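S.,

Sequence below, as promised.
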Amino acid sequence: MADADTALILARAQFAFTVSFHFIFPAFSIGLASYLAVLEALWLKTGKEVYINLFRYWLKIFAIAFAMGVVSGIVMSYQFGTNWSVFSDRAGPIIGPLMAYEVLTAFFLEAGFLGVMLFGLERVGKKLHFLATCMVALGTAISAFWILSANSWMQTPVGWARNAEGQFVPAAGWLEIIFNPSFPFRLAHTVTAAYLTTALAVGAVAAWHLLKRRDTPEVRKMFSMAMWMAALVAPVQIFVGDLHGLNTLEHQPAKVMAMEGHFDSYPNGAPLILIGMPDSKAEKTHVLLEIPKLSSLILKHDADAPLEGLKSFPRSERPPAEIVFWSFRVMVGLGMLMFALGLFSLLARLRKRLYDWKLLHRFALVMGPSGFVAVIAGWVTTEVGRQPYVVYGLLRTADAVSPIATPGVTGSLIAFVLVYFTVFAAGTIYILKLAGHPPHAGEGGEAEAPIRTAGITPSPSMRRRGSDPRPDLSEEAR
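The prediction came back faster than expected:
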């Protein structure tokens, strides 16, 4: 294998590694920011302490997840210059402004209100603090808007022209570029996935405490809210995913054929291959389990509709079917389990056993990480399915890489792996430690968070002072 080919593989592996870590945290913080806004709104409307206790509980977890997302995103962006300079030069006139809009609108909005949200609950008015929480939640959604617009343009590029230097530049206006053909579907699918991911994580934490017999009003409330989200959002996500798939079939048919594992064309209806082993070299999928004509019914809404196969495309234009086939099945399979969890929770409500049905709690606990796994599997399906292009149909991945040497990429990849697993593992462990303590009445504010985490319960006089972290030596404290 030539040195250039090895450097390309390592550069792709490095970007895949860093973006996989990064994607986990925005997927959580987008949903969690909205959840915090809902909790604070319910507190302001009802005055019930259970909502503000849950708000304070999840606020600490949000702060850590948000920080890790920002740090991992900054590190990832440097690779556009170090490893993908040709892509940055060719697509920069379009991708650059879109990313700049994200900074100017979303990042500045989040930065401006984040401090008030994290530390201002007892320092500013309730309405002002609620405004800050809403602005942070809005900022996360706007960030997703611009990032997905840029990524979607790379999937379905429109509104471009080439200048004399070979760069892609806007041909007419920005609206066509921003709202490219795949963007609405990709935005809806990704943001809905973020909400579902957060609901499953919240539900798993509540289920853990219910299994540990920590049956407080706060635990019950967050489990109930999480299960409502799972029951309502999971079917919506399946519907949106179907629309997204139809859009992908229209604009990136080779990706869909790799997802389906179809190498041959089917003139009278294609089967749905549930389990199989695609073999790109042999141009065949070794089928283990399939349902006749179901693939045509799903993709064309007609069981007898014809479907093309990967053999309709030159080998050089095909994505690696082995990866796309299985990543898609991981995503869809987890989506079906999420839908099943929502139905299970509805049954538990009807039987009035939502808080004492241990089987449901174990199911919810096991499904806690499933949202994160599903969003990564979806990202792999999307990005690997776009290959061999980085800008679909216009710029090949092999032509977008920087003129880099293998030793340099190898060293940076090893460094990223070591640092990421050390730093982000520590952050994740700390989040799990915080989640391992149940929320309760009188959940402390911002100043008490590090004290309670250390295992010291502040006395009432400490809560009144709110500034001196030393243990109270009064008779009551003793």
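The radius of gyration is 25 Å.

Coffee later?
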